[in-house]
Design brief:
82 residues; mainly alpha; 84% helix; DUF2484; membrane; transmembrane
Length: 82
């Protein structure tokens, strides 16, 4: 197991621990931080591993950050519908 996958597992553990803590802003600040660290991590994973490992990491990240993705899809749907 290479260092990028170890970093992914640490990111997943930190993300799940952050979700367990109470928040006044519905975890949006934490989600922004996770997105800011997750994107370079995802690029690193795609760079060092086969493409299917990168896709698995992408699916894992999307499952953790599902609400920002849902809001993004709703926003894009509204923009396209105009």
């Amino acid at each position: 197991m290479n260092l990028s996958l170890i970093a992914l597992f640490v990111w997943l553990v930190v993300a799940n621990m952050a979700a367990m803590l109470p928040s006044k802003d519905n975890h949006w600040r934490r989600a922004y931080g996770l997105m800011a660290t997750g994107l370079p991590l995802l690029l690193w994973i795609f760079w060092e591993n086969p493409w299917w490992v990168g896709l698995l990491a992408l699916v894992a990240g999307l499952s953790v950050l599902r609400w920002p993705v849902i809001y993004l899809m709703r926003w894009l749907r509204r923009k396209v519908a105009r």
